[in-house]
Specification:
Layout (H helix, E strand, L loop, with lengths): L8 E4 L5 H10 L4 E3 L16 E6 L6 H6 L6 E5 L3 E2 L5 E4 L9 E3 L5 H4 L1 E4 L4 E2 L5 E4 L4 E4 L7 E10 L3 H10 L15 H17 L5 E4 L7 E4 L5 E5 L9 H11 L6 H4 L13 H27 L3 E5 L12 H4 L5 E6 L2 H8 L6 E6 L14 H16 L6 E3 L4 H4 L3 H21 L8 E7 L22 H11 L3 E7 H6 L9 E6 L14 H12 L3 E6 L3 E4 L2 E3 L2 H4 L1 E3 L37 E3 L4 E5 L4 E8 L2 E6 L6 H14 L10 E2 L4 E6 L4 E6 L5 E6 L4 E6 L4 E5 L1
Parallel strand pairs: 1-2, 1-19, 2-3, 3-13, 13-16, 16-17, 17-18, 18-19, 20-21, 20-22, 22-23, 23-30
Antiparallel strand pairs: 4-12, 5-12, 6-11, 7-12, 8-9, 8-12, 10-11, 14-15, 24-25, 26-27, 28-29, 29-30, 31-34, 32-33, 33-36, 34-35
Helix pairs in contact: 5-8, 10-11, 10-14, 11-13, 14-18
């Protein structure tokens, strides 16, 4: 029987909190201790009876090397703002709106090959002989631009301050320190130096058990302005994974020249909302292969010298997307990531090919939370209770905290609460014991990214999302703790395998039109549209949220409107009268709603086609509708912000679209504030109260029911 009083917990330390660290090892039952950015591991703890993690930075914390090899400092593609030619020469300042402490234009390499001036009005690159660079002014000059055309410059810049080090310094108000420069391990001299440096580090730190790589080589896109404010962030951005050395290798493999526009992408940067081009997908695949090969070299050294290799899912993780086949080739022992909610928990816990996973819970021990008047207990409660429902579907193997321990120790109530969290985590982990949770249906989320960005393609970082993308975030968060087998499919998957939908009960397409989340122009491919329609016609379910399949083409905006039974008015069908507005409030989907459904911002201009059933319309704009299509069923929802009530709405929508209404009362709670998770192979189930108030519910098991009273946040275990 696993010891439920000790283990599976990692805590941070520092040189000035040795007694406090030992006390928390005892109280929290911690079996691992780690250092953090800006801290040192205490000499007094090197013989403690716990695993020691050491945060290891492959790309920084050696400015002597970076300064001696400025040609191998990491680089990033940056685009200037749009500048309009009004007559005469046009001067475009490169660093306007960009922190000069963060970046410096790369004029060392051939700027006419690696920079690109774009006429955005014409959508064409400008010939390199039609522009020049004024280095003293820091401007690209176009002597004879087309009047009133807009121009941008895409250029390579050196990362002369590591963006995460800058973030940490600004957040914590650090003073009198040296900016850490980011060097490029992919390049020859630094590659050789890095492998020697790793061996030296391990030899100099014999007490360390786990090398926690933070992460490997390429930082996600994180740009600051002149006031050190975040200007642009894309957690999946590849802008900072470039250099002439890397791009020349890509050109040899791909067989065609690289253009900055593959990264900049019509002036938008290749962010998670942009439907990826063939060239960008080629570049991502190339980077994954090359990064995996180099990361494997470091992991092999780590293992050779008797240490475990752990990767932090964040910072320099570009090229190590953990759901792609290249990732398993790295041979890591573990992955650790920050847990902000259920989606980020599943993003970590579902990772294949590692021995264990670990979640770093919030709040991070930073002064933005741990200050006079701060309430870290509230944040910790929200974080734990939100993530717990996802842990019950697929548990991480360990939990932990990060930051500066001396800040946390100033809040004794926080210390007490985390002690209870550690106990509860060990209890639920022991009860689940590798068991498979009961899944009522199999659902697949269909978008342009598929499993490459499972659970997280809507995220900024630490579970943040743009508010306009609330529906994708809401649906994924609901699914993270729901009793469904969840898959992530790309449109490429549909093209590659005609049987990829076999075994799927319900398909989900969620988000705004013409984005990577719904597909955009991919719906012009008749094979894609026909495959999805055939799936539903043959008995499958479809749920569309927001503007599913939204793309103006051949007389329709919602390309699956015939399946969904709704269409969006974009002005082109205003001359057609619409008569289907009658609501059906007694439908199966609405049975648990306590009041008007919260659709968030909803959608404007959605109307029902003849034959569809409107469940909710507001001022003759459809918010919720259902439709029969052949033997299958479809549900349209205008918006789905995350809440327990909306999670129940989605649950019912999945069951109804899969013809599974009769399966509702199996391992089910009548009160949507509580949930039931069954582990039939373990002979156990639990009922969990997801709120901060007591709840009363009827619990349906496999053929019976009983009334249950639950305390606030309570989780109660039963034998089947």
């Amino acid at each position: 029987m696993e010891n439920q009083q000790f283990g599976r917990v990692t805590i941070p330390t520092d040189v000035d909190v040795v007694p406090e660290t030992l006390e928390l090892v005892r109280r929290w039952g911690a079996d691992a201790i780690r250092d953090c950015d800006g801290t040192d591991f205490p000499q007094e703890l090197k013989s403690v009876d716990a695993k020691v993690y050491s945060t290891y930075y492959t790309t920084r914390k050696d400015n002597a090397w970076a300064k001696a090899n400025p040609d191998e400092v990491q680089q990033c593609y940056i685009m200037t703002g749009f500048h309009t030619a009004s007559g005469g020469p046009l001067a475009i300042p490169l660093m306007q709106g960009i922190s000069r402490e963060l970046m410096e234009p790369n004029t060392r390499d051939d700027i006419r090959r690696w920079w690109e001036v774009m006429d955005r009005t014409a959508g064409e690159p400008l010939s390199a002989d039609l522009w020049r660079y004024d280095q003293e002014a820091g401007c690209v000059v176009i002597d004879a631009p087309e009047p009133f055309h807009d121009y941008t410059v895409s250029f390579l810049a050196y990362l002369i301050w590591d963006p995460v080090h800058m973030y940490n310094a600004v957040t914590n108000g650090w003073k009198d320190f040296e900016h850490q420069i980011t060097f490029d391990v992919r390049q020859p001299k630094t590659h050789k130096f890095t492998m020697e440096r790793l061996r030296r580090f391990i030899a100099d730190h014999p007490y360390v058990d786990v090398i926690r790589y933070t992460t490997f080589f390429h930082q996600f896109t994180l740009i600051f302005d002149e006031l050190k404010r975040e200007k642009y962030v894309d957690w999946y951005g590849y802008s900072a994974s470039v250099s002439p050395y890397i791009l020349e290798q890509f050109e040899k493999e791909a067989g065609y020249p690289f253009r900055p526009e593959f990264i900049i992408d019509q002036g938008y940067y290749n962010n998670q909302y942009r439907t990826p081009s063939r060239e960008f997908k080629d570049f991502m695949a190339f980077q994954r292969r090359e990064v995996a090969k180099l990361a494997r070299e470091m992991v092999d050294i780590t293992h050779e010298l008797g240490k475990e290799a752990m990767m932090f899912l964040g910072d320099h993780f570009i090229g190590t997307e953990p759901y792609m086949p290249e990732f398993t080739a790295i041979g890591l022992d573990a992955v650790v990531g920050s847990v902000g909610n259920g989606s980020t928990l599943r993003l970590i816990s579902d990772i294949p090919g590692v021995k264990y996973t670990e979640g770093r819970f919030l709040p991070y021990f930073f002064p933005d939370t741990f200050h006079e008047g701060g309430d870290p207990v509230r944040e910790a409660k929200v974080n734990w209770v939100t993530a717990r429902r996802a842990i019950l579907r697929k548990p991480i193997d360990r939990i932990g905290y990060g930051g500066y321990l001396k800040l946390a120790c100033q809040f004794p109530e926080f210390i007490d609460y985390v002690e209870s969290v550690c106990r509860e985590f060990r209890e639920l982990y022991a009860n689940i014991g590798g068991g498979r949770p009961y899944c009522v249906k199999t659902v697949a989320v269909l978008n342009s990214w598929g499993r490459a960005r499972s659970w997280g393609c809507h995220m900024v970082h630490h579970a943040l999302y743009q508010k306009q993308n609330y529906s994708y975030a809401g649906a994924i968060e609901a699914l993270s703790g729901a009793p469904f087998d969840v898959r992530f499919l790309s449109f490429d998957d549909l093209k590659a395998d005609p049987h990829v939908l076999d075994g799927v009960d319900v398909l989900l397409n969620i988000g705004g039109g013409d984005t990577a989340h719904t597909g955009g122009a991919v719906w012009e491919d008749p094979a894609i549209a026909a495959m999805v329609k055939r799936f539903v016609w043959s008995g499958g379910g479809l749920i569309g949220v927001g503007e599913p399949s939204g793309h103006q083409y051949q007389g329709r905006y919602l390309q699956l409107s015939g399946v969904l039974g709704v269409e969006k008015e974009t002005g082109f069908t205003l001359g057609y009268d619409k008569y289907n507005w009658e609501e059906h409030p007694d439908h199966f989907l609405l049975a648990d709603c306590t009041g008007p459904v919260d659709f968030g911002e909803g959608q404007r201009g959605i109307y029902a086609l003849p034959g569809a059933q409107v469940l909710v319309q507001r001022e003759r704009e459809v918010q919720l509708a259902v439709n029969e299509f052949g033997q299958g069923r479809a549900v349209y929802v205008s918006g789905l912000p995350y809440s327990f009530e909306n999670s129940r709405l989605l649950y019912r929508a999945i069951l109804w679209s899969a013809h599974g209404e009769a399966e509702l009362h199996r391992w089910f709670s009548s009160n949507f504030n509580a949930e039931v998770h069954a582990f039939l192979d373990r002979g156990k189930y639990c009922v969990v109260n997801n709120t901060y108030e007591p709840q009363s519910t009827t619990v349906y098991t496999d053929g019976g029911s009983s009334r249950l009273e639950l305390d606030a946040n309570e989780i109660r275990w039963f034998s089947v």
